[in-house]
Amino acid sequence: MTTTETTGTAPSAQTVQVYRVYIKATPERIWQAITDPEWNGRYGYAAPATFDLRPGGAYVSTASDGMRRASAEMGYDIPDVIADGEIVESDPPRTLVQTWRMLMDPQIAAEGLTRLTYEIKDMGKGVSRLTLTHDVTGAPALGQLVSGAFDDSEAGGGGGWAWILSDLKSLLETGSILAG
Fold this sequence. Notes:
disordered N terminus; alpha+beta; Alpha-D-Glucose-1,6-Bisphosphate, Chain A, domain 4; single chain
């Protein structure tokens, strides 16, 4: 089960989204699936991401060929780098804190960097809890997008973090992604 908690009542207010999922996998496997482009390019939006896992190190996610084709079919181009940021803290396989900026849409890119935190906890018996916290303060358009607000709309945008984490869970537990 993935849960979302959003706080704040106005776009200028502190807004934090929290997503939690329990996965039948070790913390090490989950960490690898998040930080290794051979893994993270297989689920969610299939956009491989590289992490320089030291404070100040770069985070870069690039558009996949499938994303480029889908964007072209919808009549717009996307940049090669679709998200970027910087590592704030890295404590494998427990905690990863980074800044994060979506670059696919100029309005959302202009909202600037947000803060993304992954926390992985071994719950015993082969189960781990992954909590993703995204502080989207000052980024209302991004907050709407990553919340999954456009999941069922004609405009696209998908299911946001809830969908990505569900796809990650499916891949680690079954070897297959949700749409695969």
